[in-house]
Write a structure and sequence with these properties.
about 140 residues; alpha/beta; Oxidized Rhodanese, domain 1; about 30% helix
Length: about 140
C-alpha cells in the first residue's frame, strides 16, 4: 500500500501568491540567471540561485538564505515548475527548522501561462551583480 504524506511546507497557486505579494511577503526566485533572462521575474523577487547548471547547490546559497530569512518568517519560493523549490522547501523545514515556507505550484511557467506580469531583466553576464538582490 502506498502512503502519501502531505509536504511540511505549503503549496500555493497564483491567486494566493498575489495576495501574499500584496502583503509584502518576500519571494525568492531560485532559478539560474539565464532562466531569469529568458522569462523575466515577478516584480520584487529576490534573485538567489539554488542549483547551478551542473545540478549542484550553489556555494553560499544556504548561508545567504538563512542570513536573510528568519526561521519563523513567511517566505515564498519560486522556480520554473515548482520542482526545485519543493525540494528546497522540504529541506528548509525538515533539516533547518523553518516553519513558514510557501512553494509556488507550477512555478513561473504557470504565472506566465496566466499572462501575469513579469519584469524583464539584463543579460545573464550582468546578473552576477543582482545575485541575492531584490528586483
Amino acid at each position: 500500500m502506498l502512503i502519501f504524506k502531505e509536504p511540511p511546507y505549503t503549496n500555493i497557486e497564483n491567486d494566493q501568491l498575489q495576495v501574499m505579494l500584496n502583503k509584502n511577503v518576500p519571494i525568492y526566485d531560485i532559478r539560474r540567471a539565464e532562466e531569469w533572462q529568458q522569462t523575466g521575474v515577478i516584480e520584487g523577487s529576490h534573485l538567489l540561485t539554488f542549483i547551478d547548471a551542473r545540478g549542484q547547490v550553489k556555494p553560499g546559497f544556504i548561508k545567504r538564505f538563512t542570513t536573510e530569512i528568519d526561521k519563523d518568517e513567511p517566505v515564498i519560493l519560486i522556480c520554473r515548475t515548482g520542482s526545485r523549490t519543493s525540494k528546497l522547501a522540504h529541506h528548509l523545514m525538515t533539516e533547518l527548522g523553518y516553519t513558514n515556507i510557501f512553494n509556488v505550484d507550477d512555478g513561473i511557467k504557470q504565472w506566465l501561462r496566466e499572462k501575469r506580469q513579469v519584469t524583464k531583466i539584463l543579460k545573464p553576464a550582468a546578473l552576477d551583480a543582482y545575485f541575492g538582490r531584490r528586483l
